[in-house]
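Deviations from the work plan: none for this task. Representative record:
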Amino acid sequence: MTDTPAIHPTDPFEPEALNAAEGLDPVDPAYAQVLRVATALNLIPLAIGASVFDYLLIRHVEGPYGLITALAWLVAIVVIITFPSRRVSRWGYKIGEGQLRVARGWLFRTDTIVPFVRVQHIDVGQGPVERWFGLSHLIVHTSGTHNSTVTLPGLPADLAAAMRETIRRHIQTDFA
Amino acid sequence: MTEAAAVPTAPIIDEDANWQRLHPATLALAVVKLGPRSLNFLPAVAALGFTGNWVWIVPAILAFLLFSLVAAWLHWLRFRFLVGDDEIVIESGVLSRQHRTIPFDRIQDVSIEQGLVSRALGIAKVGFETGAGGKENDADLDAIALDAAQALRTTIRAHRSGEVVAAVAASDTPEAAPVAEDRLLFAMTPRQLLLAGLFNFSLAALAVVGAGMQFFDNLLPFKFNAFNPMDWVDVAEDYGLDQWLLAHRWVAGFGAALSLLFIGFASGIITMMFANWNFRLTREPRALRRTRGLTTRTDVAVPVRRVQAAILVTGWFRQRFGWHELRLQSLASDGEKERDHQVVPFAQLDAIDSVLAEVAIARPDADAAWQQSHRIIALGGLVGALGATIGGLVAASFGQALGWLGPVLGLLIGAASLFGVRFHRWTDLGEQVAIRRGFWKPKLTLLPHASVQSVDLKSDFILRPLGLATLVFGVPGGSSLASHEIPAIPIATARALRNRILTARARA
């Protein structure tokens, strides 16, 4: 749990290199904490559920006591600690040349470009956890049915507002 | 409705007098609609019957009818609309009121639809397409008098064209003369419809009838299932034909095949006739207008400037005779089921070209340089085939004879996906991209660069090592399920194409 940009010398996929090679800016590393909290909120109830299940069931089958509980908590903790920073390092964005570029994912990587003139409207959102870490997410709406919303999370709140202003100046309504 | 407006009982404010109600015949329509809806009531009737409370059945049905009628009447009473100078206001809702204002500027398209009963009553349902996403965002008036509906549409169109008359003149100058009046672009004669219906051969209806027969098998007073060969043998036995039939089994087989063919052709022709009877596509100053339908007549206008892409669909067999179907993807959608507008149901390419010219989209020439997608796209089908094979073999190893269908199906799926790969092609025509796919139902998408709102460049752990990427285009209208994409092309090509497309100007 560090606030400095996480670097993974042992990561075979080298996500930093991935972003740099594609000319993308990384999102704020603090976004890893947001993701971590979100993941924890998802996984801890599951782990508790598994423990209860274990407690109720295993005494009936006289099976391996505590195995399911231990496994569930182990998996949950590993996922909560390691995955968010990896996922964050695979988000990348670039704003400029009249277009917004957002890339995400590695196993299934999607690299989206939205020209500013195609933007219908923009949202800047902030959830309670994001507020805690001073982050916002930017949602760009297009009129396309596919990609009708493009979300870019993990932006410092002031940067998100500045990006919104930049894009707003370019919005045209070519659909009267 | 108009009586109430014309003779105000109290000196009310002037604008109140302009409020209109739906046509009273709508109530009659509600009665007709009760028919299918009362099916919901069947279980209750059955329950009453089974519990022996026969006396209550008639009162229960009457109460249900009364309740539904009162509900329809209340709904009618609490629904009113106002056609203003540049907006339409709709107020609806019995308990929770909804007040909706739609400026004429925002109405992309006014559709008029008439079902069989509506036609008898002279009323029509008017739908307003606002281009906003989601069905619930589109308003409709269900239903008002047909002439009122047509007048309303004329009002809204006149408003729109009056406002942007300069833009129209600028964009439509190539055919400056006919701008003022409508001209027929495409129509279907009964003979053409018959031909189209023959190519529309489909056994889907058979499946429905078969399922229905299965379902009603127990309900029919006599034991006979048209899809059970044994029943036919039984009938034959009654007439002493069984010996002869068993000796000449080919007759039965031939008869079955013949009736299959007949049902397939008949259902094709009937569906084509019902949907496209008296099909007319006309060019209006700003839109393509389509009217069609035998029982339910629909009247839809596709504004030319809102056309985002053209899709040419054909079949492996009809393609040999040059028959194609043209659909236009527009901001406004075509009813609930279809996400694009069928503007030419069945025609030769030269007829389609003339319609395409109206929306400034061109088909690629015969000598266009098509590029193929990589063969890897067969992988999905092959994995499916493998799954089917393994599943089938496992089932077969447990002694389930049907399991042998698995490997057979797997082989078929695998062969089809390997074969189908060759039909994934694309070409860049400068101002538009053409994407072609499919063997069984070849589909050619013509996508102007200017319609593209966003571009995804996707790669994954399979495509990346091969240096490939998939381009997915965000285009207004259409469905998110059937997105426009060029799968598995070299990543450098994909990047270059993406840059070319995104620098295109908005469509004028």
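The longest strand of chain B covers residues 123-129.
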